[in-house]
């Protein structure tokens, strides 16, 4: 190799990684290359130092700005080192490649951001995604976003926990005699996340943003219990004892207890909502208040609302469970209620004048749309204006 191809080096990601010392394999690769071509060691060393210096100016996205700054950097380095170390020809080639260097500095800037930005940080206004934290029986916590689909998450107490090819969390008993029914797991979603899980009995649960579900590794032979916060949609598996009797399933929130015999229903128990609501899609459930000695039996198409008292009303199911299908559906919904949903899904804080909270809106939009789409939809009504200041959504007249 008689002559260095500086442009090829500057555009070679592995060479940039070697210069920055960020990749062990790339470092070993280029050290072996230098052993093979020792005549270029001085040139490579100087170019390495120059690229590292470029990283200091990588925050500017303007190539022209980079050109001017890097030209100054080259001159500075030229004054610090004798040209005999690298040769005038190499410095001239570097100068001729300054525009390319500007582009490389942009690459370095993006690479630096990727290195510095914490995992799972959600950009402002971006719709939520499938992610959750799983707390195992020993208290250890697993980020499910870090587990590949089709992989085993953990093996505990005779139960294999998998993340299937659809990204759902699945429990599979591999040593039934070892499973302790007192061992508990907990799955939790943050704002801006949702997750689906298949429980040890085969029942399905779909957690909305900012929700939790606590459940045993093994359900009792006589009854099944889970505890939840936030919002969860359930599809309960029908299981019978050897005597042909159905094993009941109980869902508990802070204020109520739901008895299920096999059905589909949705529970909304967010702390910031005025009611705990249970909406029945099919089957039957009995909802009981923990504070008062009262209960109601729901029919499909009904929901129970609980605050101080417990009452039942007919409801538009499509609106209640639209989130399961990936939509927002608003039918005469008050702005304050709508904003709570936006806050949880887009992970933003909201501020709204009290006098505007009761404004009502109709509409439908996919939850996969960015927050800007929701803002535009609300503003086209002419009722309100909104502004996004950082992670704070502000409603103005």
Protein architecture, described:
By secondary structure, the chain is α+β, with helices and mostly antiparallel strands. The protein has three domains: 6-116, no CATH class; 129-319, Jelly Rolls, CATH 2.60.120.1440; 326-396, Phage tail protein beta-alpha-beta fold, CATH 3.55.50.30. Helix content is 29%, strand content 31%. It is built from eleven helices and 24 strands. The chain has helices spanning 6-10, 13-20, 24-36, 41-56, 63-80, 83-86, 88-96, 98-116, 317-320, 335-346, 371-379, and strands spanning 129-130, 133-135, 141-143, 151-156, 159-163, 169-173, 184-188, 193-198, 204-207, 212-216, 224-235, 249-252, 256-260, 264-269, 276-282, 285-289, 295-298, 302-306, 310-314, 327-334, 349-351, 360-366, 385-389, 392-396. It has a 19-stranded mixed β-sheet that branches. InterPro entries: FecR, FecR_C, Ferrdict_sens_TM.
Secondary structure layout:
Layout: H1 6-10, H2 13-20, H3 24-36, H4 41-56, H5 63-80, H6 83-86, H7 88-96, H8 98-116, E1 129-130, E2 133-135, E3 141-143, E4 151-156, E5 159-163, E6 169-173, E7 184-188, E8 193-198, E9 204-207, E10 212-216, E11 224-235, E12 249-252, E13 256-260, E14 264-269, E15 276-282, E16 285-289, E17 295-298, E18 302-306, E19 310-314, H9 317-320, E20 327-334, H10 335-346, E21 349-351, E22 360-366, H11 371-379, E23 385-389, E24 392-396
Parallel strand pairs: 1-8, 6-8, 11-12, 21-24
Antiparallel strand pairs: 2-3, 2-7, 4-5, 5-6, 7-10, 8-9, 9-11, 10-11, 11-14, 12-13, 13-16, 14-15, 15-18, 16-17, 18-19, 20-22, 23-24
Helix pairs in contact: 2-3, 2-4, 5-8
Domain Protein FecR C-terminal: 327-395
InterPro entries: FecR, FecR_C, Ferrdict_sens_TM
GO molecular function, one term: sigma factor antagonist activity
